[in-house]
Amino acid sequence: MEHAEVQSIHVHPVKAFRGFAPREAVVEPWGLAGDRRWTLIDDGGKVVTQREQPRLALAAAELLPGGGVLLSAPGRAPLPVTVPEPGETVPISIFGTKVEAVPAAPPAHAWCSALLEADVRLVHMDDPATRRPVDPAYALPGETVSFADGYPLLVTSAASLDALNSLIAEGTHGHEGPLPMNRFRPNLVVAGTEAWAEDHWSRIRVGDVVLRVAKPSGRCVVTTTDQDTAVRGREPLLTLARHRRAGSMLVFGQNLVPVTPGTIRVGDPVRVME
């Protein structure tokens, strides 16, 4: 794996919205700077994702200076949203875990509710150092995470996607492939490895940043959602179920926790430490 390097970096400022691909990003203890610090909640306080609302694939969020976001979607006027002033938090539920978050201003709630034709609110994680611990079954003491599904970063490899697309092509729903990497919503895509090499990593160095592999990434229905049209199919879950099952999980990619902070850049070498 001498020539493994970062092929692309992906930041999703609002959970479940499409993100952007910078040339470099700062790695903070809880994830890439600006990644998934915002999320939508329903009227009961439960986080809303593409699992329930595939149309979120059509909405985009760009980072604004200071941590705010510019929301956009087809047929809607873009809306800049500033980070809310510190103040009253609301309890939200993310995969059964209770977390406190700060509501955005009312225009953001109205914009997002109109987009989904459902009553939702946009909330911000004000203090990622304290608000949400990583799953203690896979965490070291004090590790925290933003509104990502469970871990600060997700890494995938280009070779594994090529291998998966070959398997999809052989299957009964091969017409759904080849799938693009955005189905898997990673933070880091690595080129120059063997297929599935990431299954065997436990610690890697990306440029000067050290990252610990916490566990494989179990995949859900979001991967079947075309991120350009919001239309759902059956792949890659059908093929993952045949070839990439680990216990109850269908696996693609690995979840990472930063060991040392720093900046990562496209083209940085990726070295396996253990």
What labels would you give this structure?
single chain, 274 residues, mainly beta, eight-stranded mixed sheet, 11% helix
Give the topology, please.
Blueprint: E1 5-9, E2 24-28, E3 31-32, E4 38-42, E5 47-48, E6 60-63, E7 69-73, E8 76-81, E9 90-94, E10 97-103, H1 106-116, E11 120-124, E12 153-157, H2 158-170, E13 188-191, E14 203-206, E15 209-218, H3 237-243, E16 245-246, E17 249-258, E18 262-265, E19 270-272
Parallel strand pairs: 12-13
Antiparallel strand pairs: 1-13, 2-3, 2-18, 4-5, 4-11, 6-7, 7-8, 9-10, 10-11, 12-17, 14-15, 14-19, 15-17, 16-17
Quick rundown:
The protein has helices at residues 106-116, 158-170, 237-243, and strands spanning 5-9, 24-28, 31-32, 38-42, 47-48, 60-63, 69-73, 76-81, 90-94, 97-103, 120-124, 153-157, 188-191, 203-206, 209-218, 245-246, 249-258, 262-265, 270-272. The protein has 274 residues and is mainly beta.
Compute the number of strand runs: 19
Uncertain runs: none
Discrete helix count: 3
Helix content: 10-25%
Largest sheet: 8 strands, mixed
Shape: globular
Strand content: 25-35%
Which structural class matches the secondary elements? mainly beta
What is the average of the pLDDT values?
97
N-to-C SSE series?
Answer: EEEEEEEEEEHEEHEEEHEEEE
Q: Rg to the nearest angstrom?
A: 18 Å
- First CA to last CA: what distance? 13 Å
